[in-house]
Design goal:
The protein is of the alpha/beta class and about 400 residues long. The chain has 14 helices and 16 strands. Bound molecules: NADP nicotinamide-adenine-dinucleotide phosphate and magnesium ion.
């Protein structure tokens, strides 16, 4: 059998622990036998990040800007324990944060749906993609404990030194006060990433804020989305047969719960934090959630939404059998290969991505799955076979052949 050719290499960002083991198995058994795989390889494993003073992370993000599509393995974000465990020179920052800052992107998370793993919201027939704005608001807040009676004010001083003041509250006793901000530029790039991704995916886009109460702050989000939509995207949305729908955040939540799903749901930073956990747990499992970072300039980085599955890795190191779910990592590769195929006009590569996903889902639907899925499947118990990590990937490979 001749292998499928590629034109432009993918940026390959390798990672840590159990997902690093999955990474190699996926390449060996599911990709290299079928595709003449071309990648520019960056080892974002913690050891290499420490050796290069994290320069490798920056280089991988720059390569993504240059080549357009990356696929990333889960990586350790160091904490004090990891600094000790790996003898690190420094507590390096989260690679995802570093990459996101360089690409200025928005993260879209979509559950992978499959027969036998049913969402606990019965009317959700199609996956809901969540887009979270990743800058500002309460995540960059400044707050004060107010010890007692006094006056709190909001003060803005412009470049010429002119002050604008607003009274927040005249306190008669103790309390709390908080200042938050956002930037037009960040909201604009969030809006463009959402409109662009909706067009790419041919899905409707929903957005909600609390602009009836927050008549300046949240209203600014609505105005920016409306303005960019009218000027840059309305016609393209009409031609693609999709819609942009704005409503109050509480109305959005109520409608989502009653919907059939299938939309992209854009959320402000805090709403996205909360709602992405609701959506992902309602759809079943973190191991069945894909994640793609889309930059406003049209650069894509695909990954799994889960971490490095440390607990399973320690079992693996002790020689014990593990049943780690590789599905989200497989879909990171299929997503990146499909996008590369689209950009390079390689229909065979796009078809391979479809076949890889179909073989993965077909394997699960046939009752062959990892332990995490066996615990939540609605398939009859007698038709389910639990496989270890390697055997599950072998079963997908056999179906793919
Ligand atoms: P995690 O790796 O997502 O795993 C948490 C638990 O979820 C696991 O112990 C496992 O439960 C279950 N799980 C997650 N993925 C699974 C899979 N593919 N198959 C089966 N079960 C799965 O989160 P963590 O243990 O909190 O974090 C480990 C490391 O990952 C940390 O160093 C963190 O910094 C990093 N992290 C990286 C990313 C990223 O690169 N995008 C994201 C999050 C966390 P059971 O143990 O009950 O089986
Ligand atoms: Mg959260």
């Amino acid at each position: 059998m001749s292998k499928i050719m590629m034109k432009t290499p993918l940026v390959e960002m390798d990672g840590d622990e159990m997902t690093r083991i999955l990474w190699e198995m996926i390449k060996d058994k599911l990709l290299m036998p079928f595709v003449s795989l071309q990648t520019e390889y960056y080892d974002l494993g913690l050891k290499k990040r420490d050796e290069t003073d994290d320069q490798i992370t920056i280089d991988s993000a720059e390569a993504t800007k240059r080549l357009g599509v990356a696929v990333k393995c889960a990586t350790i974000t160091p904490n004090a324990d990891r600094v000790r465990e790996y003898g690190l020179k420094e507590m390096w920052k989260s690679p995802n944060g570093t990459i996101r800052a360089i690409l200025d992107g928005t993260v879209f998370r979509t559950p992978i749906t499959v027969k036998g793993i049913e969402p606990c919201v019965r009317n959700w027939e199609k996956p809901i993609t969540l887009a979270r704005h990743a800058y500002g608001d309460v995540y960059k807040n400044v707050e004060l404990r107010v010890p007692g009676a006094g006056k709190a004010e909001l003060v803005y001083t412009d470049a010429a030194g002119n002050e604008t003041r607003k009274l927040i509250q005249t306190f008669t006793g103790p309390g709390v006060v908080q200042g938050v901000h956002n930037l037009d530029a960040s909201i604009e790039s969030f809006a463009r990433a959402c409109f662009q991704f909706a067009l790419d995916e041919k899905k409707e886009l929903w957005f909600g804020t609390k602009d009836t109460i927050s008549k300046t702050y949240d209203a600014r989000f609505r105005e920016i989305f409306d303005g960019i939509y009218e000027k840059e995207y309305k016609e393209r949305f009409q031609n693609a047969g999709i819609t942009y729908f704005y409503t109050l955040i509480d109305d959005a939540v109520a409608r989502i719960m009653k919907s059939k799903g299938g939309m992209i749901w854009a959320c402000k930073n805090y709403d996205g934090d909360v709602m992405s956990d609701m959506v992902s747990s309602a759809f079943g499992s973190l191991a069945m959630m894909t994640s793609v970072l889309v930059s406003p300039s049209g650069v894509y980085e695909y990954e799994a939404a889960h971490g490095t599955v440390q607990r399973h890795y320690y079992k693996h190191l002790k020689g014990e059998e593990t049943s780690t779910n590789p599905v989200a990592t497989i879909f990171a590769w299929s997503g990146a290969l499909r996008k590369r195929g689209e950009l390079d006009a390689l229909p065979e590569l796009q078809k391979f991505a479809d076949r890889l996903e179909a073989a993965t889902l077909g394997t699960i639907e046939s009752g062959v799955m990892t332990k995490d899925l066996a615990l939540i499947t609605t398939l009859p118990k007698e038709s389910v076979t639990v496989k270890n990590t390697g055997d599950f990937i072998d079963a997908i490979a056999a179906r793919l052949s």
